[in-house]
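Fig. S4 source data, part A: sequence.
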Amino acid sequence: MRSPDQGHRADPPYGDALMLLLVTLALASGIAFAIYGWQTLFGMPPRGEYERYGMPKVRRFVGATQLLGSFGVIAGLAYRPIGALAAAGLAVMMALGLVVRFRIHDAPRLMVPAATLGVINAALVALFLIR
């Protein structure tokens, strides 16, 4: 015998576990990039970092795109195409950040945050695009 609510519930486009994973990763990425973006724009330590990278002129652009990306990933929870585009942009940014760190011979431990956030955002692209 069917329960009264069977057939009347709108199922999400994918399972509850994937939806929980999507929300968790989107919030983690959104919060992390909001913090990094703010610090990059207004904090003193990131200013010194961009000079160390030999790229002081791109600091404001990177900070602004990190903030926009964070908002886009969060907005993607309501409208998935925006989330997919924002996560893709952040994943590419982290890949480029790793290239810069390799070129200046940074220690591998300094590359872990960029690599981790790159993987998280690549996974978010896939999760946002699942129908």
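Fig. S4 source data, part B ends here. The chain has a mean pLDDT of 89.
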